[in-house]
Design a protein that fits this description.
There is one protein chain. The chain has about 120 residues and is mainly beta. The protein is built from no helices and eleven strands. The strands form two sheets. Strands 2, 4, 5, 6, 9, 10 and 11 form a seven-stranded mixed β-sheet that branches. β7 and β8 form a beta hairpin. It is elongated, with a radius of gyration of 14 Å.
Length: about 120
């Protein structure tokens, strides 16, 4: 089994910053792509940013220049630094990881989600 545990969400004023963290644990052999997705009320879940094990990064257009994704492979952790936040960034943010387990199973895993609210 593989678990993803997120932290770092909360309430912030427009223009503020937050840093999300997501740590993977369990029967991990190798982690491939890690990323962040978000889901606002009444909307579909959307990709925010991903980073491959080799460091290739992809952002959705609306966060380019404001958000930075990074990962620490030694700690099996991915981060999302969010700056210049807008009210429209309000959503539940989910961590995702593609993991091959020690039992040779390749699968996508999700965290429980962390709420980010941008409001004055």
């Amino acid at each position: 089994q593989v678990q993803l545990v997120e932290s770092g969400g909360g309430l912030v004023q427009p223009g503020g910053s937050l840093r999300l963290s997501c740590a993977a644990s369990g029967s991990i052999f190798r982690i491939y792509t890690m990323g962040w997705y978000r889901q606002a009320p009444g909307k579909q879940r959307e990709l925010v940013a991903t980073v491959t094990s080799g460091g290739r990064i992809n952002y959705t257009d609306s966060v380019k220049g404001r958000f930075t994704i990074s990962r620490d492979n030694a700690k099996n952790t991915v981060y999302l630094q969010m700056n210049s936040l807008f009210p429209e960034d309000t959503a539940v943010y989910y961590c995702n990881a593609r993991v091959s387990s020690t039992t040779d199973i390749l699968d996508d895993y999700w965290g429980q989600g962390t709420q980010v609210t941008v409001s004055s």
